[in-house]
Amino acid sequence: ISYGFPVVKAMAKNAKKPMDAHLMIIEPDKYIAQFKDLGVEWLSVHYEACTHLHRTIQSIHNLGMKAGVALNPHASVTLLEDILCDLDFVCLMSVNPGFGGQKFIPRALDKIKCLDQWRKEENLNFLIEVDGGINNETIKLCNKADIAVVGSYITKQNYEEAIESLR
Hints:
This protein has seven helices and six strands, in the order H-E-H-E-H-E-E-H-E-H-E-H-H. It has a six-stranded parallel beta sheet with strand order 1-2-3-4-5-6. The longest helix is centred in the C-terminal third of the chain and has 15 residues. The two termini are 23 Å apart.
């Protein structure tokens, strides 16, 4: 679901959990402070959208937010090797961004495994987030991930039952 500042502002008034924004936009640096001002606590940017990724991550941290990088399905996790120590989380897209209800891309499982191995070997503290195609079956396959972003599976049925089936 895509939404802008007015929706984020409205959600912030009722949010009981930390708000996490995933910016799938060009030049995300222009909007970091606005998301902070709206109450976002976790902010991820796409690797492909940042000319100076390290600077963008520093900007997010300097505003007191958790910083993450999202990778599209075609991107290798090796792209993040030199910045993993600066990240709070990595968001692995397990579908192509754009719309809900897509099928999980199994290659994401290899990426989760690789990132998990790196953080153990290098004693790093970033979390692994997987986003897209998550349901009560695919979530079992993502057991090395720390966070699952679930959309259509929850919104297209009784959300309480769907959430319970994920647990």
